[in-house]
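Example 3.2
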Amino acid sequence: MTIIDGADTRKPDGSHRVVVTGTGAISPAGVGAKALWDAVMGKRCCIGPITRFDSDPFEVKIAGEIPDYDPIELGLTKKEAHRLARFVQYAIIASDEAMSEAGLSMESEDATRIGCVFGSGIGGLEAFEQASVTLNTKGPKRVIPLFIPTVISNMAAGTLSIRFGFKGECTNVVTACATGTHCIGTAYRSIKHGYLDAALAGGAEESVTPVSLAGFGNLGALTKSADPAQASMPFDIRRSGFVAGEGAGAIVLESLEHALARNANVLAEITGYGTTGDAYHMTAPEPDGDGLMRAMRMALDEGGFKPEDIGHLNAHGTSTPANDKAESVALRGLCGEGCSVPVVSVKGVTGHMLGGAGAVEAIVCARSVSEGVVPATTGFAEADPDCPVRVLTEPLRDYPQKVALSNSLGFGGHNGVLAISPYRG
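Structure, written as tokens:
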């Protein structure tokens, strides 16, 4: 075992412990991980009327937009603001914050040992829409030459690696709404097994566009509520669909050995990761929650925890009837009928950020365990008998935890779960 300053940096099986040293976010709550945290802890709904385009033809009138978004004011160059898709811009803004907080200087690092695992569930929707209109009104010669590299979802990871000089693994995991969690989990495994010393991981999405709202709306996934306070209501009996949100979350992960060697500030520890498939349906979760339950158990087992050790669950909690019920069933299947694990969903604050959701939720989960608190679920007021879990209406404080779970589910039956613990040397 490797010991640095009294800390055992390896797990019992000899693999590396993996810690979080930096976080960054841009969300409907504003710019920064602190803005996100303050909104979640303050139960501030950041959903509002759609301003980016005319919503009159749409049944859906509200979304979780980035407030007063100006990429130039947020540090991007005019060239970046013009050429890069909005989801890549969001990824840059969140990642700049995470890298700054981590204090990771590439000048003193072996760049081949630093990776980037950053995804988007859909990619450059806005540019895709614009190019489709150009193609059909002005002809193929007028489509911009950089159309393909603008819209493809791996461009967040590629652009970030170029920006920071990462020469290790550069990967884009795409699993719809589970993308952010799977990207963090993939980076965690690469560090745990010694392929990387550190990685930037997360997810981004630009889902507030006409075609996105038309598609999700016609699928019946979006709420038609025009009242932001009565729209995203995870686990509430009145829930009627999710609210589209946008933005990005970024996390810097390192082996504990690497973090301690450079005297980094450790925020939390990733202690396990579980990923499974439902093999059930294109859009619906498995009703009995078996796939998600297995993923939660995998994440706990990897960290050496039992269900009774769970401090809280940061749920996927989309505010759709099927998801919240299946997730409740899965948690009770894991913990038993008398389950009293506190449950929170942040989507009452941000809406559903799709490929960015798992990343911002991991940030909230990490801060929750490190500070010994559990946020309340904004929008929740009336319990649903079909969701017999303990959803908080007020935060829990002075609440030490061994481990918390952060869940994500994606269309296609993708389940991803991170086990996150307070760091103890």
